[in-house]
């Protein structure tokens, strides 16, 4: 199963599978490029890179089944130095997200990036599903370790009554770039037989850490095969995840308009220009005096 393919050549991919006559479902993904893109955009230091990367990976995995304009938002609100971590997944593998304090880096704990220490152990994980119904649905659970995968496992058990195994991993290279990233979520639905559950637990325990699988160049098919073992399963969807934001110059102009005439007149008088940064992707929009004056012209 282990091959020596250079992980850098592996494309990002997400897959969804079901097995055991529909009683087992699994999501697996390689997200190295996606997480590197988020690192580059937000200029995160290693601990923040891993925390945001795990959260983005979790969001795209859970979001595999989203359709149209549906969104899934993960918010990790711990009491550690990172502050809030937010990831919003849309359909087709698109995701955007940020961490409040991207410059957070803690000394490694037992040779690993101390994500739990940076997130904090007190706090909550929130999962919001906006499926185009009247009200988005938000569930939450207390953080367990701040390591995100464990917190999400607890969320599925407590808030959705779904026993799950969640693994999320980001390997940061010596030059701070992302060397490998990936994850999986394995869930047991009502009706699963006891012996199936036992076999799945054994499969999960026999696998190397997911960042190591991604680094060794395992394909998602190989990861899925390792999870399902000799259980019969079918792979349904395969998607390419990507960091994609919804911001635009038009959207930024809309935000400025909402501030009101006085605020914009003030900007023109003081700076003459405006610089607006999107939280989610860190893109900066520069508006010239002419842009601002044009904006004023469109306002009542
Ligand atoms: Zn943006």
Description:
It is a single chain. The protein has a six-stranded mixed sheet, covered by helices on one side. The protein has 300 residues and is α+β, with helices and mostly antiparallel strands. It folds into two domains: 231 residues, Hsp33 domain (3-Layer(bab) Sandwich); 49 residues, HSP33 redox switch-like (CBS domain Like, Alpha-Beta Complex). β12 and β13 form a beta hairpin. It is elongated and about 70 Å long. α1 packs across α2 and α9 runs antiparallel to α10. Bound molecules: zinc ion (ZN). Zinc ion binds next to loops.
Features of the shown structure:
five-stranded antiparallel β-sheet, six-stranded mixed β-sheet, alpha+beta, 2 domains, 300 residues, 35% helix, elongated, binds zinc ion
Overall pLDDT, averaged?
A: 93
The ligands found in this model are: zinc ion
The CATH architecture term of the largest domain is 3-Layer(bab) Sandwich
CATH fold assignment of the largest domain: Hsp33 domain
* Silhouette: elongated
Q: How do the helices and strands follow one another from N- to C-terminus? A: EEHHEEEHEEHEEHHHEEHHEEH
Radius of gyration from the CA trace? 21 Å
